[in-house]
Amino acid sequence: MRTDGANYAAVVRIDLHSHSNYSDGTASPAELVRHARELEIDVLAITDHDTTEGWDEAADAARGEGVALVRGIEISCRHADHGVHLLAYLPDPTYPPLAAELERVLDGRNARLPATLDKLQAIGVDIDEDDVRACSGPAAATGRPHVADAMVEAGVVRDRTEAFERYLGPKGPAYVRRYAADLTEMLETVSAAGGVSVIAHPWTKRHNQDALDAEGLARLKDAGLAGIEVDHEDHGSREREVLRSIARDLDLVATGSSDHHGDGKRGHELGCNLTLPEAYDRLLDLAEKSAAASGRKTPEVVR
Ligand code: AMP
Ligand code: ZN
Ligand code: FE
Ligand code: FE
Q1: Ligand 1 atom nearest to 165, measured from its CA
Q2: Residue boundaries of the structural domains of the chain
Q3: What pTM was estimated for this model as a whole?
Q4: Which residue ranges have their beta carbon within 6 Å of ligand 1?
Q5: Ligand 1 atom nearest to 145, measured from its CA
Q6: What does the alpha-carbon distance between residue 220 and residue 158 come to, in Å, rounded to a whole number?
Q7: How do beta strands 253-256 and 68-79 pair?
Q8: What angle do helix axes 129-136 and 96-122 make, rounded to 10 degrees?
Q9: 240 by DSSP, 3-state: which?
Q10: Topology (CATH) of 12-103+181-294
Q11: Cys staple from 30: which of 58, 61, 235, 252, with CB 3.0 to 4.6 Å?
Q12: Do the Cβ atoms of 57 and 28 come closer than 8 Å?
């Protein structure tokens, strides 16, 4: 049996990173939980981008389906002038500095839409705000994946991946920068909200391998980081090996997850990467300590 978190034949299947249609996933929170049960996932975390709006529906569904549910958020941050995603598990979402920062990120994402559409218009791609809103449904904010969906509908591209590669990615002609939270400050905010932080797919982008090397991650640990998402589809086997040893050396929790987006992202099926039960237990333990130290009322894990 393999001892890392990738696809191992586990008795307990734990997936700590997934998206619903409250951000850029394609399934409702209830559908997401049902899907998890069908795939025999025992513990699922719902981690929509910058919003907790899907939490209640997911929790209700989890109780009905007998799936354990961890409430989380994937927060859009900036570090060394690059975008980085932070998974925050079990924070009190009403903690004012956290709520304010999430609102700022969501506002920034919404505010960018007209500029993105102007840039597309300038290169002959004619999509309007209504087209995009028809794709974003209940999402807390309308982001690039929804623009991509509208481009698919219009027959401009085949799928989201092509839309990002040809138009919406950082080097694409329709890219527009938006607000993101400062990573170090956000680590402190999540702790103060009684939650725990795991850095999501830290080595998705080449440039982040420099800012988020062992030394960089050690500094983030000092600011409150509890774990590293090691097993993620964006990491190759060599990267996973190095990240796992960094996590071990720094005594950070190594997690593995799918980053499932429904039909919105290829190759990210629920359970394609898993977190070991020991790692999950440690994370819960740290969350409990963080909650106690903060004095905040944090959400319970649905069991
Ligand atoms: P936004 O937050 O609006 O800037 O959109 C960024 C989000 O788009 C990321 O968090 C991903 O979930 C998604 N995304 C980025 N690249 C791709 C891609 N190539 N295919 C599908 N989804 C992507
Ligand atoms: Zn996403
Ligand atoms: Fe992410
Ligand atoms: Fe994600």
Answers
A1: 19
A2: 12-103+181-294, 111-168
A3: 0.96
A4: 24, 49, 76, 109, 143-145, 160-161, 164, 265
A5: 8
A6: 39
A7: unpaired
A8: 130
A9: helix
A10: TIM Barrel (3.20.20)
A11: 61
A12: yes
